[in-house]
Specification:
By secondary structure, this protein is mainly α. It is 68% helix and 0% strand. α1 packs parallel to α5.
Length: 142
């Protein structure tokens, strides 16, 4: 009499690492979008006085601009997380996911910055999402 195991075959460590890398990269797209929005807000005239004269006052205005500094901090986290993800994953599958950053930036711009949606922006979003989905379906090597 043979016994059948109720437990499915566990994923290999390699497959788990690739899945973890894809999740990290997908999270990075959101972090990158937040960074871009914060930098945009930080560089707006409401946060950075365009009449600042001289290098020292300009540098001081930049380093004390909280949204701007937070945006660059988010980019730093983005970079570190991407390095960790790219060590474990397949570049040809992970890199297209980064294009989703454009989707999040556009959607956040609509919501937070009150940018005006139009047919071309929305068609671009749809195109990016379809492209990432197609590239993500790339054949596995056996």
């Amino acid at each position: 009499m043979s016994t059948i195991s109720a437990n499915p075959v566990p994923q290999s460590d390699f497959a788990r690492a690739r899945s973890r890398a894809a999740i990290i990269v997908a999270s990075c797209t959101i972090l990158g979008a937040v960074a871009q929005i914060l930098i945009k807000v930080g560089m707006s005239p409401a946060h950075l006085d365009p009449n600042v004269k001289g290098i020292v006052p300009l540098v001081w205005a930049l380093v004390t601009d909280v949204p701007l500094v937070a945006g660059y901090f988010c980019y730093g986290l983005f970079t570190v997380a991407m390095v960790l993800a790219l060590r474990e994953g397949e570049l040809s599958k992970l890199f297209p996911i980064i294009a989703l950053t454009y989707v999040w930036v556009t959607l956040l711009s609509y919501w937070l910055l009150h940018d005006t949606p139009n047919l071309y922006k929305n068609a671009g979003i749809v195109t990016i999402v379809i492209g990432v989905a197609i590239l993500g379906q790339g054949g596995e090597r056996k």
